[in-house]
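Researcher: Next entry in the queue.
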Amino acid sequence: MIPIFVIVVLAPFDWGVFQFLGSTIEVTQLVGAVLFALASFTDWLDGKIARDRGLVTNFGKFADPLADKMLVMTALIILVGQDLAPSWVVSIIVCRELAVTGLRLLLVEQGGTVLAADWPGKIKTATQMVAIILLLVDNLPFEGIGLPVASIMLYICLFFTIYSGVDYFVKNSAVFRGPK
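Model: Structure for this entry, 180 residues:
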């Protein structure tokens, strides 16, 4: 779904605009937000089904967060390019995502342990998804009343991104001491 999302959001032609409560947004941004929301929902749903049916695998515990990171990083980088998100915030988020992915690889390499997402990481993912959707629709419907909900969500997302990253590294610091 990531390539389709990129093509739609970066479409080099005008699909028109959508107006809602005094705010105007490009249709490509709205469709991109719907695609991103759909990808996020189906990601949550397949994880829930796997857990409910006892189909959780080490591959899934590794690949699913990696797919989440690819989707989120792609969307955030596009938002920076469209001046809808500050590059310094996105840089911190991308660095954290890459660092935690590296940690996951080290854990697998040294002990075969797959680092599953815990609550701080799940909250981080949820706030990222909400922030990205609101940024994609340029803060619609809150723009009309002057409430910067998209920006607020992005900074909440940044907090949980940093917090969960530190949490993962503190809980798994033994990996840096080498194999036993």
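Model: DSSP finds six helices and two strands in the chain.
Researcher: Noted, moving on.
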